[in-house]
Amino acid sequence: MSPLRTSRLLSEQEVARHCTKDSCWVLRGTRVYDVTGFLRLHPGGDALILHMSGTDIDQEMEGPPHKHSDNARRWMEQYYIGELDRNSCTHKAQTLRERRTTQGTTDGHTQQEEREEEREEGREEEEESPFSRYSTVDLDKDLVDWAQPLAWQVGHLGERYDAWVHQPVDRPIRLFGNAFLEANTKTSWYWVPVFWLPIIFYFSWHCFVTLAQDSAQVFLTPEFSIPVHKYMFPLLFALGWFLWSFLEYSIHRFIFHMTPPGHNYYLITIHFLLHGQHHKSPYDGSRLVFPPGLAAVVTGGLYMALHGVLPGVLGDCVFVGGLCGYVVYDMIHYYLHYGSPKRGSYLYNMKAWHVKHHFEHQRAGFGISTTFWDHPFNTVIPKERF
Hints:
By secondary structure, the chain is of the alpha+beta class.
């Protein structure tokens, strides 16, 4: 969402009524925000926001436990819907939770009528509202025309590109005007396992069967070799997965996060198509995983390079481990953006880590499936201090 064009006054009673997953409003001072669409995306979980629904969240934004970044505050403005009317009847401003307590003796029929009445009021508000979801594009502020394909615009931003691309927005991006090109930049998450898992299963079976014939050997010299038993397959598979984790880190840090020179239109455009568009619109669900066609080209090159070092079945064993690591990485990346991991779990911590990378520490936290390589290369996201 984007900031609305004009403000409307909202009573305290009206704000207090929106305290559920279906409709959740919060306050910052007198400014009212509809954060319903962001609930399941919030790295701390939806319960934290629902607990504060209808109240001022300024103190929570400042922390502890977490001080929200400038980008998070800017992101928040996209959900702005109006101003709180301080002259409204305060004694009527009870939250839905309070009403449930005070009306605990009300029979089920009466409660159902009240819920239907609230839903009907919400529908009437939406129908009468003159506000559109997206604001009119302001070229002086947004720098680009969101109504037009962005691929050919971003290169003209020059020195302003790096700051612009790292100010995320919650709105869809259109890269190309051509419908065919645009469609090929989008991939639903499930196509990744559908495309790659059969290949992984085939290579795994092929490697194990070949090793079981006891014909694979590693030649250290023309006269001396070491036989490779079938039980070595899990170790070679794990080695491939480990090498992928390093490749994941390296690609993300040195390619996806290169800083294109401001005077080079083409490098800026390439960077935006590779990764910049993801940082500009991090919750665009159709662009969170690599298109299998493009990934197949890159994977084919890596396969040939690996076989130049480890010929035969040894190269296949390491390759399939790395390929499996890539699929897990792509699935984890999608889940970190759209999933709701259990609080305190590994994926919960990785989600918080990755969100910080997007909103605050774009030059650190390059690990996605693991933070292992951030430690030796000194790109660990610093801990907050208050």
